[in-house]
Design a protein that fits this description.
elongated; about 0% strand; 3 helices
Amino acid sequence: MTQRQRKAVGTILTLVTLVVWTVLGMWLYELLLVGAHALVHLVFFVLMGLAWILPAMPIIRWMARPD
C-alpha cells in the first residue's frame, strides 16, 4: 500500500475514531455525570477532548510510514 493510499484510509479511520470517541464521551457523560458539579463537567470534557489523540496516534503513525 502506498503512502497516498494509507493517508486516504487513515483519514477515514481517524474520522471514524473521532466519531466513536465522541459517542463514547456522550455515553459516559449521560451514565455518570448528569447533575454533577460544573467543575467535574469541565475536567471531564477537557480530558475527553485531549484524550482522543490516544486512539488516533497509531493510525497517524501508520499513515506517516514511508513507502
